[in-house]
Amino acid sequence: MSYAFRRHDYNLNDFERCPEHGCVMMQVQDLPPVCLIEWLLEKAAERTVRDVILREQGEYDLPAVILDNGFLLPVEQVIRVRPAAPTELTLEEVAGWYVADILSMPGKDAVAVELLPPGAVVDEEPGILLQLSVDILLYLLFDQEIRKVEP
Q1: Any bridge partners for residue 77, and if so which?
Q2: Domain of life here (predicted)?
Q3: pTM above the 0.85 mark?
Q4: Per the omega criterion (within 30 degrees of 0), is the bond before 126 cis?
């Protein structure tokens, strides 16, 4: 998917930015622009991890998390919050965890989600941050939007 995004020579600097989050907004034809973070909140907030696709199994050489609604989160980097350290993503570790927070990092054009174990409270217990592939997310958002005008 990111290959298709790059193949069309998209430049994130050319995209409109969300005034609230500073992230990229996707606009297809005459449809209103859609904020990437708002779209992620709709698709992923409070959802539970059901499966993990490991790097060597993924078609696009990125691991991914599959949520209970079937939504895919393409993962570029996994960081354990405390102690802060890169880590590997395994189903055994995050199965049943939930998406507790969605974060925009506008200076880096990055988006992350925080996963917490069941019953954990945001900002009270350490979780795992997943930095997501913005290219793939934008491609998924574009696909959703283009289907509204080109069935």
Answers
A1: 131
A2: Bacteria
A3: no
A4: no
